[in-house]
Input
Amino acid sequence: MYEVPELMDGYRRFLSNRYPQEATLYRSLAEQGQAPKTMVIACCDSRVDPAAIFSAGPGQLFIVRNVANLVPPFEPQGDYHGTSAALEFAVTGLNVSNILVLGHARCGGVRAFLDGLYGRAETPGFIDRWMSLLEPAYVEALKSASGQSMQQQQRALEYASVQQSLKNLHTFPFVQERLNDGRLQLHGAYFDIADGQLLALDPATGQFGPVS
Output
């Protein structure tokens, strides 16, 4: 830590500026625990910070971030499932009311997949196995962006990846149970880094549109 000056400088600014303004809230959260209403599944891209995008304070959002904001399908067998474990904790432990899958423009993981760098290796590594989750979304994206520019294909796949992750959420029994009885709602959104515009997925049409 001491060898990373930007982190230590940032902490000092937090301690002298932000913490005094929110000290009461932090103490309350420490004593009472967290009770966020919304889980956000976002990309680990350093340019996309859900807390900043939604102006969220401490304790408001339960956030899990991974490469390309993907949700794997329900797999009760296997080894380690970080995103699935976070999802189970948010739904069954914290009883969140909303899950938002947040995609974004210019996603490096999506572009690498389009370029054939990840997801299709003969001897797959961690990132290859993970990015292979995009394959169904890739098939859908090709239908809508066939013959278009690489930039348009990338955006189509970024959209499709959000929709595929929402489909995969339905495969988790504890998610589907709460969807059926109205305790939980799923949402999709897309953030454009360049202009700050947020698009929301309309579940009725399957289209993304600007948030007013």
